[in-house]
Write a structure and sequence with these properties.
This protein is an alpha/beta fold and 312 residues long. The chain has 10 helices and 8 strands.
């Protein structure tokens, strides 16, 4: 139960910003276009404050537009690639300055946010391929993969895993670790929480997620490994942290992803946060659990980088 009135107000604003997304995607009458809804959504996310002590610049990541957030105290060479959420349909780096800034300060790392292309104009697997291209660009600049980690939320949480699978398959050196936040890991939506968390999740419904999945998938099937990493060959991936809120519709499928990783000999840490909602990290400025989750993820990622650099 959400007792903080400011958190509840912000959550309602988040949900309200998406009311017309379903009619738009179904081709029904709406008062705004998809481009207008996307712009309004970014403004809503940008209401989360950017912490002091970080700078923000635009960057071309090998043809993928992006943003780099740099803290005043940064460990040289340390990089986090953060992949924004939004069901591959909405969202942009411009709405993530607050979350990325908090990660940058906690990890003492530069945070790069690729603005990958969105569906339905660019369906699966284009958004994931764009993120891999941005990662390839970072490597081409001479950055050590052992000093790079990947994180993301929702669709970006799934992409954290899917992109590393793509990289491994292409012979691209893998990063030191990944942190998948509230991952949208199974577009079949077959987990039990898709039913027994309906109404507890303040942001998502199963019917809404089904529509978003169909929009992103295009002609692909829901069990396509690039779209649903619970079906991917994940062998050989680096350590991965999964953080999921107990009230989320995506809870069971995030737990399934953790099991799938562990059964395939990937070091995995699963954290289920009681009563937390989708991507509660976004509310770090007003929610202690948001701050604690970011700090915990940063500690996991830092430990993995330190361990990777000590490994021959």
């Amino acid at each position: 139960m959400i007792t903080n009135p400011l958190v509840a107000q912000r959550l309602k604003a988040w949900a309200d910003s998406l009311i017309e997304l379903a009619p738009i995607l179904r081709g029904e009458k709406a008062t705004v276009s998809l481009d207008e809804l996307r712009a309004n959504y970014i403004k809503m996310l940008a209401a989360h404050p950017t912490p002091q002590g970080v700078s923000i610049e635009q960057v071309d990541m090998g043809g993928i537009p992006g943003t780099v957030v740099t803290p005043e105290d940064v460990v040289p060479g340390r990089i986090l690639v953060y992949i924004h959420g939004g069901a591959y349909i909405i969202g942009a780096a411009a709405g993530y300055h607050g979350l990325a800034g908090n990660f940058a300060k906690a990890l003492k790392a530069k945070v790069y946010l690729p603005d990958y292309r969105l569906a339905p104009e660019h369906p699966c697997p284009t958004p994931i391929e764009d993120c891999l291209q941005a990662y390839r660009w970072l490597l081409a600049q001479g950055n050590d993969p052992k000093s790079i980690v990947i994180s993301g939320d929702s669709a970006g949480g799934a992409t954290t895993v899917s992109m590393m699978v793509m990289a491994r398959n292409a012979g691209v050196p893998l990063p030191a670790a990944g942190a998948a936040i509230s991952p949208w890991a199974n577009l079949e939506h077959s987990g039990m929480s898709m039913m027994n968390r309906e109404g507890l999740d303040p942001l998502n419904t199963k019917a809404g997620l089904d529509l978003l999945a169909r929009t992103f998938l295009g002609n692909a099937l829901p069990n396509t490994p690039e779209a649903s990493p619970v079906f991917a060959d994940v062998r050989g991936l680096p350590p991965i942290l999964i953080q999921i809120g107990e009230n989320e519709l995506m809870l069971s499928d995030a737990m399934r992803l953790a099991t799938h990783l562990g059964e395939n000999r990937v070091r995995v840490t699963l954290e289920v946060w009681p009563e937390m909602f989708h991507v509660w990290h976004m509310y770090a400025a007003i929610l202690p659990e948001g701050r604690a989750a970011i700090e915990g993820a940063a500690a996991f990622l830092e430990n993995a980088m330190v361990t990777a650099t000590l490994t021959p």
